[in-house]
Automatic annotation (TrEMBL):
The gene is pheS. This is Phenylalanine--tRNA ligase alpha subunit. It is found in: Cytoplasm. It comes from Pelobium manganitolerans. SUPFAM superfamilies: Class II aaRS and biotin synthetases, tRNA-binding arm. GO terms for biological process: phenylalanyl-tRNA aminoacylation.
């Protein structure tokens, strides 16, 4: 038995596994449940007591040396296997795509913040609107051609049993402008008002680079005693300086809206060529950004406000237009196509 042990000892000493499989074979051969060491211990049971004293020690040492060999290499191989399975933590990360704020949201937020500094508060109204709030209260007489200024999407009532007269009275439409929110606000509360009303509006227009069937507006309203056109000009002038930078020029051109008198459209010096003339401003040096005016006394009376005591101004601007001029976006369709290549360009804009 002793000579067998010394033979195996030499084998163990010389053993050097190259792979995890080599080591596994070694483990089974020596340390396995049916392995050499198990056999030797079985054999040990039947030797004489005298031999046992000597052999016991030898056998234990032999067992320990086999275990030590196994353990020494086991760590090597487990480390190696782990290393191949593990991620290399020194490699750069894969990164993940995070969403970006939509340019229209960024600009809306900026507009709101500018007017907030002047004491304007936010108000909202529904997108499906009745005739009164979208047209009649705003001094668009029924059958008046001014209603055609805005091609309207009418919303059909679910039941079709009413007479023509009833249908007309209860006509609903997708609001064509945020001016309807002015009416709702003035009906619901008492002056003074200083409010800003952002929202989505709809018009029955063919979709192209320059027109869309839905877009966004911000409506402004200021009603109090002794509000004048000078207040209107100063407020909008401040807005333009904040939005497009100091030195941006403004000019007001007479215009027509049923709900304001007098009415005006406001232009600013072209943000691209600074007034020198370019394709954006059609070589004029000016670009139109909004409509405005003093609220027509008829509108104030329609919502129960004393037009002798109170005056006010209103304005409405398209957020897409304001955004186009800020970022030089030439095609309106980009805003609603959700192409990440377009949207990603604004992700660094933190306002
Ligand atoms: N509602 C008008 C439009 O959609 C814009 C507008 C013009 C709003 C003049 C106003 C205003 O409040 O005073 O074209």
């Amino acid at each position: 038995m002793q000579s067998k042990i010394s033979q195996y000892t030499t084998e163990i000493e010389a053993f050097e596994p190259k792979t995890a499989e080599d080591l596994e074979r070694f483990r089974i051969r020596f340390l396995g449940t049916k392995g050499i060491i198990k056999d030797l211990f079985d054999e040990f049971k039947s030797v004489s007591a005298e031999e046992k004293r000597v052999l016991g020690k030898v056998l234990n040492q032999f067992k320990q040396s086999a275990e030590a060999k196994f353990n020494a290499f086991k760590d090597d191989f487990t480390e190696q296997t782990n290393a191949t399975n593990k991620e290399d933590l020194t490699l750069p990360g894969e990164g993940f795509q995070i969403g970006a704020r939509h340019p229209l949201s960024l600009v809306r937020k900026q507009i709101v913040e500018i007017f907030k500094r002047l004491g304007f508060v936010l108000a909202e109204g529904p997108e499906i609107e009745d005739d009164w709030h979208n047209f009649s209260a705003l001094n668009f007489p029924e059958e008046h051609p001014a209603r055609d200024m805005q091609d309207t999407f009418f919303v059909q009532k679910p039941t079709g049993t009413e007479s023509d007269e009833d249908t007309k009275q209860e006509a609903f439409a997708l609001r064509t402008h945020t001016s309807s929110v002015q009416v709702r606000l003035m009906e619901a509360r008492k002056p003074p008002f200083r409010a800003l009303m952002p929202g989505r509006v709809y018009r029955n227009e063919a979709i192209s680079a320059r027109a869309h069937c839905f877009f966004h507006q911000v409506e402004g309203l200021y009603v109090d005693e002794k509000v004048s056109f000078a207040d209107l000009k100063q407020t909008l002038y401040y807005f333009v300086q904040e939005m497009y930078g100091e030195g941006t020029k403004v000019r007001f051109r007479p215009s027509y809206f049923p709900f304001t008198e007098p009415s005006a459209e406001m232009d600013i010096s072209c943000t691209i060529c600074k007034g020198a003339g370019c394709p954006m401003c059609k070589q004029s040096g000016w670009v139109e950004i909004l409509g405005c005016g003093m609220i027509d006394p008829n509108v104030l009376e329609n919502v129960g406000i004393d037009s002798k005591k109170y005056t006010g101004f209103a304005f409405g601007m398209g957020i897409e237009r304001i955004t186009n001029l800020k970022y030089q976006i030439k095609d309106l369709r980009l805003f609603s196509e959700n192409d990440v290549r377009f949207l990603k360009q604004f992700e660094t804009e933190v306002i």
